[in-house]
Design a protein that fits this description.
It is built from ten helices and two strands, in the order H-H-E-E-H-H-H-H-H-H-H-H. By secondary structure, the chain is mostly helical. It folds into two domains: about 60 residues, Glutaredoxin (3-Layer(aba) Sandwich); about 100 residues, Up-down Bundle (Glutathione S-transferase Yfyf (Class Pi), Chain A, domain 2). A two-stranded antiparallel ribbon has the order 1-2. A hairpin with a 2-residue loop joins strand 1 and strand 2.
Length: about 180
């Protein structure tokens, strides 16, 4: 979802194909069989950070990372932390188990405090950090219910309500409903 959001945010036409992690075609193109993966001409990449870094630097359009090096480092910091800490929340199937983890609740509390009454997680615009957090919070919201999410993490709930209206989020959610989920 994150890589597709990045393409939409950058205004890049792209084609999404759902592939099994055990597919032979994926194994030929990607030595680790990792999903997501990207093929662009002769370029073959895998993983959210590799793909989004390439997309952001290779294509024109709005930047996914701020130009300011401090803000860019903060986006990288949050993106890495979210991908590492919330991996289980990225998948709706594993969300129920992970959502009960007290360490996850502590991390969400920290993010809730960091967002506070701001519109974005970092800086003054929607960045890769916000994109990376969206699927985890979406699954958590589906698990807890949006009202419960607002009670437990009010800043995150308001942040999610605002950003879930973005065209890129709406588009990837529509794709997911129609059968694509990577």
């Amino acid at each position: 979802m994150i890589c597709r959001m990045a393409c939409i945010e950058k205004g890049i036409p792209h084609q999404h194909r759902q592939v099994s992690a055990s597919s032979r075609k994926l194994a030929r193109e990607n030595p680790l069989g990792a999903i997501p993966s990207l093929r662009h001409g002769k370029v073959r990449l895998f993983g959210v950070r590799g793909i989004t870094s390439y997309v952001d630097s290779r294509f024109k359009g709005r930047n996914l990372l701020p130009a300011d090096p401090i803000r860019a480092a903060e986006v990288e910091q949050w993106t890495a932390a979210i991908l590492h800490r919330f991996d289980g929340l990225m998948d709706h199937a594993t969300c129920n188990h992970v959502a009960a983890d007290t360490q996850i609740a502590k991390c969400l509390g920290t993010i809730n405090e960091c967002i506070g009454n701001k519109v974005w997680l970092v800086g003054r615009g929607f960045t890769l950090a916000d994109m990376t957090l969206m699927p985890a919070i979406n699954n958590l919201s589906r698990h807890l219910g949006h009202d419960q999410l607002l009670r437990q993490f009010p800043a995150i709930g308001l942040w999610f309500a605002k950003h879930s209206q973005r065209r890129s989020w709406q588009a990837v959610c529509a794709e997911t409903v129609n059968g694509a989920n990577a």
